[in-house]
Amino acid sequence: xxxxxGSAISQVTGMALAAAYLDNVKLTDCPVSVLPKDVNIESLxxxxxxxxxxxxxxxxxxxxxxxxxxxxxxxxxxxARCFIDAEKMSARSVFNIGTLTAxxxxxxxxxxxxxxxxxxxxxxxxxxxxxxxxxxxxxxEDWSDFLTAFDASGETMTMAQAASAVRRVSIKQMQESDxxxxxxxxxxxxxxxxxxxxxxxxPVAFEFKCVPYEGLNERxxxxxxxxxxxDEPSFVLRIVQLEAQEExxxxxxxxxxxxxFSDESVETFIGSFxx
Length: 275
Fold this sequence. Notes:
The chain has 275 residues and is α+β, with helices and mostly antiparallel strands. Helices cover 28% and strands 31% of the residues. The strands form 3 sheets. Strands 5-12-11-10-6-7 form a 6-stranded antiparallel sheet.
């Protein structure tokens, strides 16, 4: 009588368990099948002339192209759904999401992720950064086409004047000490002051005009210029109410997409979607 090795016993066990599951798999809501461990399921779709169904992912940074693609692949019988994530400046249109009674695979989509323009990136990079005289002067000169400078009285300055003023800053340090001695007491005090002056009118604020994202409107950003008094002059440019500006930009993006899909076979939602 031949003896069964471990491999044969394992195969017999697998066959016995598979036979025991045959009746149970018929009770599931979603069709399933019991297959041996070493069996692979391969699709032959790649050998057909056409795909079994249309699916794919379109990615873009253009609002117009995203809207045109979404409208082109949507249909009145099965409207596309567009999910707008204004905080991330992105959106996704899903064309085969289906319905509750006939759900789709939700794998035919279009994505848009807005890209910051070069001027807007430069503005965000400079915000709150400590700059020496050379750095701020060069930044003002590089982006002079987008900038307007203002002095303390609110009068406008040319960017050449503003750049020249930050290059010519003098730091004066003064120290004064007082000493007082008595028979039973003594007092000493030390006072130090630092003064920064410029031979020219110093810019105290700037206005930066740019389109933050492609497809959106031009915006004006106010910048406050602070001079830090230390051994060497340094400057800090800060955007006034940046968070409020970013919220307005997000609202503009959301409203623009909603308006482009108005009266089209694309339903819009605020949020994100994952199948």
